[in-house]
Amino acid sequence: MQSCSLTPSSTMERGVMLAVCLLCWSCSVCVVTAIKRTDMFSYGTLSGDLILAEGDDETSRVLSLPKPLFFYGSLFSQLYVATNGIISAQDLPMEKQYVDDGFPTDFPVVAPFLADIDTSGGRGQIYYRVTETPSVLNRVAQEVHRGFPDAKFTPTHVVVATWENVAAYEEQTRTTGPSDKVNTFQAVIGYDETDSYVLFLYPEDGLNYFGTRPKESYNVEIELPARVGFSRGEVTYLIFSRTEGPHYSVTSDEQSVKNLYQVGNTGIPGVWLFHTGNRYSFDNIVPASIGGLLDTPPTGGHSLSLDSTTPEYGEFEEYPDNTFDSENQEEEEDYPHTGGDPEFQPAPAGGDHSESLQPASPDAPSSPSEDSGHQLSYGSEDVPLTSEPRYSSEPAGRQYAPPNPPERVPEGDAQRTPKQQPQVPLEVVDVYPSHRNEPPLSPGGHVVSVDEDDVDFDTGVIQYTTENKETCARFQQQCSQNAFCSDYATGFCCHCRPGFYGNGRHCLPEGAPQRVSGKVSGTVTVGSTPVELNNIDLHAYIVVGDGRAYTAISQVPEPVGWALMPLAPIGELFGWLFALELPNSQAGFKITGAEFTRRAEVIFYPGNQRLSIIQTGRGLDDHNHLTVDTVVSGNVPFLPPGAEITMEPFKETYQYYPSVATSSSVREFSVVSAEQGSESFSFQLKQNITYRDCRHDNRAAVLETLQIIMERVFVMYVKEERILRYAITNKISPVGVDPTGPELVNPCYAGNHDCDTTAQCIPLEGQAFQCQCATGYRGDGRNCYDIDECAEGLSSCRAHSQCVNLPGGHRCQCQSGYEFGFDGRTCVDIDECSSSPCHVSARCINGLGSFLCQCQPGFYGDGFYCSQTEGQTVRPRSQCEQHRDSLQSGMEQSGRPSPGAFIPQCDSDGRYQPLQCHGSTGHCWCVDSRGQERAGTRTPPGTAPKDCDRPDEPVRPKTHCEHHRDSVQTTSPEGYPIVGAYVPQCDANGQYTLLQCHGSSGHCWCVDGNGQERAGTRTPPGTTPTDCSKPVEPERPKTYCEHHRDRVQTTSPDGYPVIGAYVPQCDANGQYRSLQCHGSTGQCWCVDERGQERVGTRTPPGTPSVDCDRPGEPERPKTHCEHHRDGVQTTSPEGYPLVGAYVPQCDADGQYTPLQCHSSTGHCWCVDSRGQEKAGTRTSPGAPPTDCHKPDEPERPKTHCEHHRERAQTTSPEGYPIVGAYVPQCDADGQYTSLQCHGSTGHCWCVDGRGQERAGTRTPPGTPSVDCNKPDEPVRPKTYCEQHRDSVQTTSPEGYPIEGVFVPQCDSNGQYTSQQCHSSTGHCWCVDVRGQERSGTRNPPGTPSVDCDKPDEPVRPKTYCEQHRDSVQTTSPEGYPIEGVFVPQCDSNGQYTSQQCHSSTGHCWCVDGRGQERAGTRTPPGTPSVDCDRPDEPERPKTHCEHHRDRVQTTSPEGYPIVGAHLPQCDAEGQYLPRQCHGSTGDCWCVDGRGQERAGTRTPPGTPSVDCDRPVPVAPTQRPESVCERWRTSLIEHYGGKPDAQQYVPQCEQDGQFSPVQCYGETTYCWCVDQDGREVPGTRSHDVVKPACLPSVAPPTVRPLPRPDVTPPTNTDITLLYAQGQKIGALPLNGTRLDATRSKTLLTLHGSIVVGIAYDCKENQVYWTDLSARTINRASMATGAEPEILINTNLVSPEGLAVDVKRRLMFWVDSNPDMIESANLDGSGRRTLFDTDLVNPRAIIVVSSTGTLYWTDWNREAPKIESSSVDGQNRRVVVSEGIGLPNALTYDSSSRQVCWADAGTKRLECVSPDGSGRRVVHPSLNYPFSMVYYRNHFYYTDWRRDGVIAVSKDSSQITDEYLPDQRSHLYGIAIATTHCLSGSH
Predict the structure, then answer these.
(1) CA quadruple 33, 34, 35, 36: dihedral positive or negative?
(2) Distance of CA 463 to CAs 147, 409, 639, 939, 1012, Å?
(3) How far apart, in whole angstroms, are the C-alpha atoms of residue 1380 and residue 1402?
(4) 230 with 276: CB under 8 angstroms?
(5) Residue 271's beta-bridge partner residues?
(6) Helix, strand or coil for residue 483?
(7) Could you give the CA distance from residue 844 to residue 996 in angstroms, rounded to a whole number?
(8) Strand-pair category, 1324-1326 with 1315-1317
(9) 218: left (phi over 0), alpha (psi -120 to 50) or beta
(10) Do 810 and 789 meet the contact criterion of CB atoms below 8 Å apart?
């Protein structure tokens, strides 16, 4: 191996030697290339991602985090993903307020690529999700552990955001076309309860542009580089001030952006990792440093420049041996770099330098020196990243690595790992190409080297130590508290303790029943109706001891409830997880634990509907219940209401692989409904279940396949309760095991044992078994009771925690003032002082479990309130008052009280009142001084409350009876009472009362001190109960009869009584009564002492029963026949009789009667003594049965024919005859009769001795059959024609003939007959020897056929007409004729006949030589057709009517006629006929010359039509333009005057109303709208048939009325008017409070963007600016008033608007040309006031009383507030210091001050017009936009909250809030009054 050593004596020598070393290394290093797209975290809809809407400035809906994350040192619980390459912790402002600015932002941001991105027009997608998928969590954990080896980080949640192929924003006005450059990148945020880390991923070729052009660049060609990094946003200091928070930049210029995918700080180019937050202390972002290229970040704002490759651990120049000589600089320039090469990075100060400077051999493969955790198959989420690659001397490009190699030994560390061969098969992984003779490295290439000492040449594998491996010491908290942790060579695994089961991370007590809860969401389309499932509840209950799984989904809407009944796979998941285990198998929970993802796809047949099911296990909750969320999406077939579903038992095989289990199966189910009867359907299920497994324990057995056996499947939808139920009994076993086999009949495996539901059944030999109570329960196994670990001191809770008992276990929760630490088990003190709970003039002292607030010297108080005045009169609020007021203020914020909220009661001194009562529930209880409830004092409503002043008596612990009573579940998960649940009764001391009675069944019995029933004391209802106070006689054990009786299930798990269950009757001694009767069927029989029925004693209901006390004759054992008869199941498990079951008949001696008959089918046959049918004796119903007493002839064995005949299935499993089944006929000797006929189809054919059909002998019904006795001629092979004919399917799978199928005709030699005819259509044609149609020979039915025997003339190629004709599809894929298809007619030369006619519609028309219709020649059916042979007159151009008529689509792409399309009628000149009628609806109406409907002329079918020739009355005045017309004009202008065919333009009626049907351009994508133009839900259609939206066609819709019109609120004096996009809302004031209950929409303006708004109190009119239409408008505030356009020219971006009531003027700002203008209130007298020294004018107000204008200019470089007179004189600056984005402006008439709200400083401030008296009213607004003042209150619109906020001027507090139902930004706000206020401005 080559090596270099440096022993220089001079600087020059050092430079030469280092340069030589550089060349030496260039031959042996391994260049790690950038990651591929496949290496990114999975994304897309299949990964569960949401998709951000297309656009230039879109923000996602709030992404609520399941648990909050720490970003920097602050806690955030929600995120937003934005178009422009960022993720924010708060809603974003408009993009122009940040996208063109530098870093940092003033709001919290994670920025993988902040630039002006635009995804409009399908230019890219943005995906995002928050996930708990184990594979994703595992990968993030490994990345963090590699980048931060000392971090103790186990992520609980991950946020993944992906920008895929997104484009940069480009101005439409630019001459160049849109760029094809797109970018792809990803941000991944992983966090736990204390830390957060962020990954940025930039794949190879993922970045193709590196910045974007500012929108406001004024045609200057500049480009801003993308910003990458993190910003905390503004933070508050000194209470009222805000300042720039910490931030961190990764890029600084375009080159550093380009480097993003070429380098990284993780050892992998394109992958960047940062520590971004911590709960306890966090100053700024910390980057990872594995092979990374980092700057030492400066203080304050941090920056990471990719232009420098200086390591963060020291400057390169600090090492004199590494200094280059200037004389050798030329050689260095051959290897360009940007400050230093990464491969020559020095070691940390004080570290070993030799590893960094020793090159590797050019012949040896390389290994990462610092990237020890990187896995080469980088993007595989399914493979945990705990394993690392090993390298061998395989050929370049392929290497082999065992799955779990040890880690690398750093040089000088622990001793070498012994050489060893891998003990598992090697897997092949791809590595980077061979590095021999590689060219010099390009800048930024990452280089890693290998020390020769690290390579074991015997194995070709690099050896590592386990110094940094995952061990139990570091990660034991990942194991369940009921598990132990074991270390292995490559890592650790968790294993459940004895008595528990699971995968070690989650463990449950063995034998205990399990509950599941979760939510179901998604969209299910039933037929064509989509139904939204919005987080409805799912509950499941699994009896683990016998594999029964019950699932209930509540609040399921009715249409989808019936349709989801076949979807038993939803509940099958729980059956698989907790199935009854047969030997050598294990249920799913032992493999997956409680965290998994199950993805299933269901395809229904025959409709091919597809449904996706995603079920995510999210762990165990506080009660040890499994939490599973379910998402369903797709289509399901419609099932009629009231239908019943039957699913037969089935088996399914599961394949097991590492981390995934899969299965695929086809299920059949029957649907029985009143409408359709019984129908059979099926569906295919494909599924995989992914989970996190532990591969370190190689001893764990891998189960390759197992089978799940579902013995019972019951489904039901309860319409009244809207509950969908599934009940499934499940067993799991090795594949091929028969669960009914003799080795599995032990009751534990059969599931029919009598162990308690909370007990485990342990099989013993034969039929014996043992019941053992589950872990956490106590009893004899048949009756088990929960152990209260808390009361009995058996808990595992540690210091500062308290125990909470659970069924079968307990949990520990930390005491007040403590929380769980890193290990999840130890309670650690909460540092309350970190949240600054004390007064600003106090200091906080943290203590164990509490804290103390002490006022600072010179201040007095309790620390929560401190003042400088001793004995201040204002008492600080107590804890009770703070508690009470915080709840009440929460009510005020929301505007309404939260139903059922408890408000504590305080006395006059602020202390908690001793007695507290809940106002909603009526419960009362006593509390201590801290407000904590005193145990045992709670009383229910209607009972006297406790005396809380009496001293507490010592609280005794709950008794066993009280625990038992309180643990009984008396209500279902859905909240319904459970009927039939037994609740034990306890006395005053908590002991069991001696007499216990069941409230539902009425049985009573005595119990002992443990609550155990005393044998022989149970009495049925209506009888005197036993005296339980009598001394107890020695207790005898339960008898077999009593055990039998007590384990019979008489109620279902849901609490309903089970009808038809047989309950044995026992006498007083517990023995079986000799006479037993079935309560449901009425049958009675005698039994022996074992309860076995005595043969011949059963009597039906209504007949005298046998005297069972008569001495029995010596009892003979049951015969084979009697066993057979008694073993037949005649009732279902639910007790219903089974129809169609065959029951053998036995004589008095128990022998089979010679003649056996089936009571359902009527067949009879003879049997031998063993009950076997005697061949040839079966007779059909109605035929005389065979004489079975005739002596048997010697029985010959059955022949092949007889076997064939008997196995033919003529009845279904339910016993119904199967129609159409073929049954072979055998002769008396059992041989096949030579002629066989099918009883259903009538076909006959000859067979040979084996029953095989003889070719050419089949004859159809009604034709003479072949003589099958003639000797066979030599059989020739079937010809092509015969194969073709025989392969045609003429009957359906159900045996019905298929109409319309073409069957080719073959001659006696098997060749195609020269003429072929279609038996259904009647068409005939000639074919060649291959059966191909000869061109020009087809003739329709009823015409003479062509002579096909005439010799062929030379075949000419097909003409265009013939190709057109032959391509028309006249039959469906199933062979049925398609009605209504137009088939063109061609003449003998193949040319179009001059006249064409449609055979279905009867229309005829002339065509030219190309088949194109000649205008004006079409005639309807029944009218004389045009003479198409007359010479054409000079062709005039098509008229508008003819164009309209010809482009109407009357047939679908498949050739079907489209019903409902309106075809306009044109006259001979091509003009619209004055009267038009709709061919489908029958409506008629008059039209003008443009084809537009004349208002008021439409008449429905059957009524006289209007005379359209009468003159139209002329309206006296032209009506104003309607909203539909304005919107239409605005959009056409927006499209540049020429909308594309795909673009939407509103369709308006002649009177300006919205047309009921709206479509995108000329497409078929249409929907219905109401009179306001709003879409009618559920009417959207992609079909060629437009939705029926006319009033005469269902669904009915209201014809549009003239809109928009004004709808003002009634009975209001003061109303706030606010602009919200396309509407103006009205919000009345009640005093100064916002009256949300009376809010309403004042005016709807479709297509508008209303920004500025003002009000004229004299004329009661509202004025507004429309940014979309570029207009200024007004409308009267009177009911029904319509808008009026005042100005619609020379406006670009009109925003702020003000009205001078006194001078009758209006003023506005235009922020694009940067102007301020004025005009009279009618729009006249327009003039420009200012057009200079303005950058971004926004708000404007006018003070009428002084004639003064004020406006804001939020020029970011120099923001200001200015004023002038109303005539434009005396312009001056009022405020220019200490402002940022002054958006909102108003005038306080009481103080005569100008006030503004600043979206930059977040302050609300006021100042006098002369600039004096400036003061802050509120220091921390969210994001204000516009503001008004009224009665000492400011009301402003807020873009963070998307609502109206009220701020009191006196208290400087936010006093009220209004959030409209529709969430979008609010713009301008104004105040409307019934009369002008004094001082109105």
Answers:
(1) negative
(2) 21, 7, 64, 70, 64
(3) 10
(4) yes
(5) 201
(6) strand
(7) 58
(8) antiparallel
(9) left
(10) yes
The three-class DSSP label of residue 885 is: helix
- DSSP-derived letter for residue 1328 is -
C-alpha span between 521 and 1104 (Å, rounded): 59
* 8 Å CB contact between 454 and 355: no
Alpha carbon distance 1137, 1572 (integer Å): 61
Residue in the block written with tokens 């076909």 = 1243
pTM of the predicted model as reported, rounded to 2 decimal places? 0.33
SS3 1153: coil
Q: 471 by DSSP, 3-state: which?
A: coil
C-alpha 1311/C-alpha 1304 separation (Å) is 10
What is the spatial distance between Cα 1285 and Cα 1310, in angstroms, rounded to a whole number?
A: 10
Structure tokens at 358: 């020793």
Expressed in angstroms, the distance from the first to the final Cα of the chain is: 90
Burial 299-325 (b: 16+ CB within 10 A, else e): eebbbbbbbbbbbeeeebeeeeebebb
**Distance set, CA 381 to CA 90, 564, 874, 1212, 1648 (Å):** 30, 33, 62, 48, 47
Read off the amino acid at residue 1060.
Answer: G
SS3 645: strand
Of 1738, 1754, 1747, 1791, give the one whose Cα is nearest residue 1770.
1747
pLDDT given for residue 1881 in this prediction: 57
Report the candidate in 1850, 1446, 1866 with the shortest Cα–Cα distance to residue 1618. 1866
Residue-wise pLDDT tens digits, 1483-1540: 898 988 778 888 888 898 888 888 888 765 544 445 666 778 777 776 776 666 677 7
CB-hemisphere CA count at 13 Å for 720?
A: 1
Between these two residues, 1614 and 380, which has the higher pLDDT value? 1614
Indicate if the alpha-carbon torsion angle 68, 71, 76, 80 is positive or negative.
negative
Task: Provide the residue type at 161 as one letter.
Answer: A
Q: What is the DSSP string of 292-318?
A: ---PPPPSSSEE--TT----TT--GGG
- Residues 769 and 748 sit within 8 Å (Cβ to Cβ): yes
* Structure tokens given for 1781: 């984005």
Contact (CB, 8 A) for 1779 and 1801:
yes
The per-residue pLDDT for 330 is 36
Q: How far, in Å, are 1467, 1762, 1822, 1844 from residue 892 at the CA level?
A: 70, 38, 19, 14
How much is the CA Rg of the chain, to the nearest whole Å? 44
Residue 870 main-chain phi, psi, to 5 deg: -75, 135
Amino acid at 1506: V
Contact 688, 377 (CB under 8 A): no
H-helix or E-strand spanning residue 1843: strand 1843-1848
Residue 174 CB partners (closer than 8 Å, separation 6+): none
pLDDT one-digit tens code per residue, 998-1030: 877 788 989 988 888 888 888 888 888 889 988
Among residues 761, 384, 727, 333, the alpha carbon closest in space to that of 565 is found at 727
Whether residue 120 contacts residue 235, with contact meaning beta carbons closer than 8 Å, is answered with no
Distance (Å) of CA 967 to CA 586, 625, 758: 30, 15, 13
Nearest to 379 by CA among 162, 208, 207, 167: 162
Strands 723-733 and 580-581: parallel
248 Cβ contact partners less than 8 Å away, ≥ 6 residues apart = 229, 230, 231, 274, 284, 285, 297, 301, 302, 303, 304
Q: What is the mean pLDDT of residues 1405-1430?
A: 87
C-alpha to C-alpha distances, 857 to 836, 861, 870, nearest whole angstrom: 18, 11, 12
SS3 1360: helix
pLDDT of residue 347: 36
Q: Are 694 and 504 in contact (CB under 8 A)?
A: yes
Where residue 1002 falls (left for φ over 0; alpha for ψ -120 to 50; beta otherwise) is: left
Helix residue ranges per DSSP H, 1634-1733: none
